[in-house]
Amino acid sequence: MNSGEILFVKSVKDGIPNRDPLNDSDARRLFPEEDGRISLSDVSIKRDVRDFVIALEQDGGKDQKNHIFVQEKVNDKGKLLGRGSLAEGIAKSVGKEKKAKEDMKSVLIEHCFDVRTFGIVYSVKPKFNLTGPVQFGWAHSLHSVDTQYVQGTVVMPSMDSTAEGEGKTQGTIWTSYTVPFAVFAMPAVINAKAAEHSGMTAEDQELLLRALWQGTQHRQARGRGQQQPLILIHIEYNDPFYRIGYLEDLITMSPDTTAWKAAGKLPSSLQDISFDLTRLLAAVAEKQDKIAQCRIWAHPGVTISGDIAPWLQPLW
Fold it and tell me: CA–CA separation, 69 vs 91, rounded Å?
């Protein structure tokens, strides 16, 4: 497989996909307050990918090569399993318990999609680590975002009332921060040299791209909001040591932040925005001799400036 870059653009309505536990579970803000943008960590997007692969490739898939190592599992007593137990469970399911005692690393590489793709830090003796060929950056909103503090009530009390009148007699009040609408751009790189060491294949790459798109649609929850993939760009290079870089800086969303602030109205739906990919497409054309292929997936409801037809791919 080739080295490459990914740019993934997605939107969210009425929720926050990645909350800040140190700030009352509000949106994560890496930029100054006056900037107004919010951010999503790579952990959030990897969780979407992993959960989709678990659902799609049950029990590791037909060849048992797409198990997921990093996931939340509990034992019979409801206690969370640690790294060692998770790894041993995978080795047992693929019938390689004996080999795992001698070389757990090779067993996990062979049978775990996320180990081959994202790497692993295995802190159980014998310890080892593996740098993943796929590295995501932070996703930042393409515009300023105002989070809203909302409250609601739960009808059911937390415990039964007794004949003596003890216990809860009414429901509880909940509070939460939410985002009415936001659009995020997340970059990633794929390192072919690292893939040689991790065992990542071209087939894994295709599953990753599908998981980015469909995993965003698959992993929904009220607190996370309604998420929608909008644009996915994948550029592969002939030269393993070259990349255009900072693809997120080569796209713009219109109207821009200045226009929104002047109008006193932030974007609230796809109908309010459009994307300009002209500079990115020009960079692809200019470096065509270094590019093996460029592919673009786009939501049909998104308005895009720039001719993406030569690179447009059918959605999954």
Answer: 11
Give the closest residue to 242 by CA, choosing from 289, 187, 205, 311: 289
Between the alpha carbon of residue 54 and those of residues 68, 86, 184, the distances in Å are 7, 14, 25
Distance, CA of 29 to CA of 37 (rounded, Å): 7
Rounded Cα–Cα distance for residues 219 and 118 (Å): 19
Which of 218-247 are b and which e, b meaning 16 or more Cβ less than 10 Å from the residue's Cβ? bbeeeebbebbbbbbbbbbbeeeeebbeeb
What span, in angstroms and rounded, lies between the C-alpha atoms of 246 and 239? 17
Q: CB burial class (10 A; 0-12, 13-18, 19+) of residue 42?
A: middle
- DSSP, collapsed to helix, strand or coil, labels residue 266 as coil
The DSSP output letter for 37 is -
Q: In this predicted structure, which of 178-187, 254-263, 268-277 has the lowest mean pLDDT? A: 254-263
pTM of this prediction? 0.90
Dist. CA 13–CA 212, nearest whole Å: 18
The position carrying tokens 């080892």 is 128
Q: What is the SS3 assignment for 70?
A: coil
Tokens representing 73 are: 């599992």
